[in-house]
Design brief:
mainly alpha, about 350 residues, ABC transporter involved in vitamin B12 uptake, BtuC
């Protein structure tokens, strides 16, 4: 019995649909595998990094201490080891993971918005603004709220820089990514110049300001984690909610608008949220460079440009990277972690330039 032409066309359509469904399923399985590997890598990195130090503590004992603190087990453990893990190393490792994730999240969003691989979390002047706020706090403000005067002043400085960038753009004309970029560069130079003047005028405190600018996690504690984790988690979910819109934006603003994307909302909302997240990271750890530039690049080479996987994978990879960078900084006479990230970042970008990816 002969089949009609319509039946053949219908069969071909069903085959194509089946192939497309198979491709989507394989992609989802690959994405899930990547995320599971990264989540496991992050937890393993935190446990291993917590075990490393002048007093080495076995990772199994670290897990036992954490489980005992959570009430999962009851076992006799050395009190000195418990204090080292719970009061010093574990909050620092977790803070490193959170700040690394925050910087990577901000970096991948900025690169997607500006469609520029050199865009970083500090492109809207957050870093020099936060640095100026911290410098003024260290030199002029009394410690009325203890150790958190400087982080709060730094966060306020980062927000002030971002607000000034948007004010300049609004004063000059229409809000676009190009105008934001130019205003961000100008405001960054202005705040950097003011910071240099502050350091010059208050030279007795210059060493404290410069040490803070290098980036470090020396003051890590549980309260700092409690303050920054909700900010990073909220921004991560917000950024992921706009992942499809960011994918469309990669095709150009006009194409994204034709696909129903509210380009104006994205260009206004996401840079502010990304700058706030980066500002929170800078407030508690100083200016740590290259994380927000490097980790999105690495994950883009592995998972591709789709922001549905690029956003969470970049956050997890940034957390893993900064945990190990801070561990190296702790083991090398407590040098600033920003030195380690720069030493890793510069060769990486030279490699990318030689491969023609930038």
């Amino acid at each position: 019995m002969k089949r009609s032409g319509g039946d053949s066309v219908r069969e071909n359509q069903l085959l194509k649909i089946g192939e497309e469904v198979g491709i989507v399923r394989r992609k989802l399985l690959r994405w899930r595998a990547i995320l599971l590997y990264l989540i496991f890598g992050l937890f393993a990195s935190i446990i291993t990094a917590t075990a490393i130090g002048p007093v080495y503590i076995e990772p199994s004992e670290v897990i036992a201490i954490i489980a005992s603190k959570l009430g999962l087990i009851a076992a006799p453990l050395p009190q000195s080891h418990v204090n080292i893990i719970l009061e010093i190393r574990l909050p620092r490792a977790i803070l490193a993971a959170v700040i690394g994730a925050a910087l990577s999240l901000s970096g991948v969003i900025m690169q997607g918005l500006f469609r520029n691989p050199l865009a970083d979390p500090y492109i809207l002047g957050v870093s020099p603004g936060a640095a100026l706020g911290a410098a003024l706090s260290m030199t002029l403000l009394p410690p009325v709220i203890g150790l958190y005067t400087t982080p709060l002043a730094a966060f306020a400085g980062g927000l002030a820089a971002t607000a000034l960038v948007y004010g300049v753009v609004k004063f000059c004309g229409r809000l676009t990514t190009s105008s934001l970029l130019l205003a961000g560069i100008a405001i960054s130079y202005m705040f950097s110049a003011i910071l240099s003047a502050v350091i010059w005028a208050l030279s007795k405190d210059a060493h404290k300001i410069i040490l803070w600018l290098m980036g470090g996690l020396w003051g890590a504690d549980w309260l700092r984690n409690e303050m920054i984790i909700p900010i990073v988690v909220a921004f991560a979910f917000t950024a992921f909610a706009f992942s499809k819109d960011l994918n469309a934006l990669l095709l150009g603003e006009e194409t994204a608008q034709s696909l129903g994307v509210n380009v104006h909302l994205i260009e206004k909302l996401l840079p502010i949220l990304a700058s706030m997240t980066a500002g929170a990271a800078v407030a508690f750890a100083g200016s740590i460079g290259f994380v927000g530039l490097m980790m999105p690049h690495i994950m883009r080479l592995i998972v591709g440009p789709d922001h549905r996987i690029l956003i969470p994978s970049s956050a997890l990879a940034g957390g893993i990277f900064l945990v190990w960078a801070d561990t190296a900084a702790r083991c090398l006479m407590e040098i600033p972690v920003g030195v380690i990230t720069a030493l890793c970042g510069v060769p990486f970008f030279i490699y990318l330039m030689r491969r023609g990816r930038m």
